[in-house]
Amino acid sequence: MAEINTIARPYAEALFRVAKKDQLARWASFLEDLAQIATNPAMQGIIGDPRVSPEQIYSIIAGVMATPLDAEAKNFVDTLIDNGRLVAMPEIAAQFRELKNQSEGSADAVIYSAFALDDGELKQLLVSLEARFQQRLTPQVVIEPSLIGGVRVVVGDQVLDSSVRGKLDAMRVALTA
Fold first, then answer.
1. Torsions phi, psi for 87 (to 5 deg)
2. CA 37, CA 121: separation in Å to the nearest integer?
3. I need a surface site. Which of 47, 106, 166, 176 has the fewest CB within 10 A?
4. pTM greater than the 0.90 cutoff
5. Domain 106-176 indexed as CATH 3.40.30
């Protein structure tokens, strides 16, 4: 079977081409919601059940969506159901978000921190990270106590590790080499 990212790419690109600039945030939110629904274990059982019709699957999805589906969204969901591609939803959402970010000149930044960051700390960190990566960043903070202290930042395929755990690991490698 083809890889999920290969399956997801045409859906994300087609949806991006159809979405208007002022609707990108709405579509990104819709895709994130749909991805959460599609990855729910109970929903995966329903999707994989041959006794459940595509119409029933659509009804369930439409029933749990936060906002009602307009005609374009309904067509998109129907296409995914008919082609058996709901399993690719998380990757479709991720690729769409990446296309959206590229068009806006921004990127997602996952900030792993040993401790919770207050708003002031996050803003200050974000200013220095945006200068470092030379683009506007949309932060997502993940608390990871195993870092001991500091932060580890992932922007696309770039990683900036200034955590205590990262420094200890670097010292261990240096001492054993």
1. -65, -20
2. 33
3. 176
4. no
5. yes
Residue pair 86/38 in contact (Cβ under 8 Å)? The answer is yes
Query: CATH topology for 4-101?
Result: Peroxidase; domain 1 (1.10.520)
For the chain, the domains span: 4-101, 106-176
What is the DSSP-derived secondary structure letter of residue 130?
H
58 in Cβ contact with 77 (< 8 Å) = yes
φ/ψ bin of 142: left (φ > 0), alpha (ψ from -120 to 50), beta (otherwise): beta
Instruction: Give the separation between CA 65 and CA 76, rounded to whole angstroms.
Output: 14
